[in-house]
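Re: the request from the purification team.
They wanted to know what the chain is likely to look like in 3D before they choose a buffer screen. I agreed to run a prediction and write the result into the notebook, where they can find it.
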Amino acid sequence: MLVVMRARIAVLAAGVALSGVLSFGAGQLEAAPIRVCPSSDSGVLRTQLPGARDELVAPGTTGVLLCRYRGLDPYARRFRLIASGRVRKAVTVRELRTQFNALPQSAPGPTACPADFDSMIVAYFRYARGPDDVVTVDTTGCEGVSNGRVHRTAALGPGPVLVRELEALTR
């Protein structure tokens, strides 16, 4: 009987702890920096960083985690992580921020794009405080670049150079 009571108390305590995490920790879970690249690009969230409403990458970034994902081909390994890289060198981080923010806006209205195979690079820009600034770069099709609030294209202007550089950083 004593063992059963202890088990019930443990279950209740675990339930209370879990409900506390769910009610208070949901925002914190989204805001926590990504330590390693997720194995798949499904469920990539938009940026939670308040300063990233007017530009792709807000000032103050201290590093970047780059995650490159396979697109639709081959079917058995679609949307899987194929390479990653970290950028910690301050000069390179500033250059990447400048390049991302220099990308032109997407053309308004309907646009004809080449084949889109859904391959992408996800850049998690780090900050000393606060959540990561999550920026996705579609590497095929119209080559959209977005943090969920700001939308640009890598198909024009300095975009192709930036995509090649990101690919080189994730080899």
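For the purification team: The radius of gyration is 20 Å.
Please add any questions underneath this entry.
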